Every structure is written in structure tokens, then in C-alpha cells.
Amino acid sequence: MEMWTIKSQNQEEKHIHKNSKVSLNGHEYTVGAGGIITVPNDHLPETATSAKATATETDHFPTEGTSNVAIPAKKVASAVPTLAQEGDRKSQWRCGL
Q: Do the Cβ atoms of 43 and 20 come closer than 8 Å?
């Protein structure tokens, strides 16, 4: 499964504590070691967008981020290449997508 990771920081530019909750783009995630949040590919939007995250640290009120996070578009499978032979058997093959 494809994943996208972002690093979270609080207003003092320190990592948000491990096991804190972060809401982003309608989904809630748990912060891992070093302030890392991992977002599965199926939670990414169809087109790239940006949004503010809301973090909830232990013993703190939920806080909305001060800047937008760039959220990439969902990764999709590549097109299957097709091969076609042109001319006689000695000619080269060409590949098109």
C-alpha cells in the first residue's frame, strides 16, 4: 500500500508528541515517533489540494494549524504499455503508452 508521510510541528516548532491525534482532510491520524504522520493512499484526494490540520495533544485543547498542508493527489496505477511492430520482421519495435 502506498503511503504519504508528513512531519507535524506545534506552534513552538517542536514535534507534536507521539500518540497525539491529528485531523487532516476529514481523517484522523495518530502521530508516530519524530512527529511523523502516515497517510494511506486511499485517504488522499483525487486531485492535489491543501488544508489545515487540527492537532489534539494530551492535556491540550485541539488546535488548528496556522498554515495549509499541501496534500498530494492519490497515486494511480500507470498505463499498461502496448507494443506494436511496424514494417517487416527486421524493423524495430516501438513502445507507446
A: no
CA–CA separation, 45 and 13 (whole Å) = 27
Give CA torsion, residues 16, 19, 20, 25, to 10 deg.
100
pLDDT tens column, 68-94: 888 888 887 666 766 666 665 554 555
- In the three-class reduction of DSSP (H, G, I as helix; E, B as strand; rest coil), residue 35 is classed as helix
Residue 82 φ/ψ, nearest 5 degrees: -115, 145
User: Is the model's pTM score more than 0.70?
Assistant: no
Cα–Cα distance between 83 and 88 in angstroms, integer?
A: 15
The enclosing H or E element of 69 equals strand 69-71
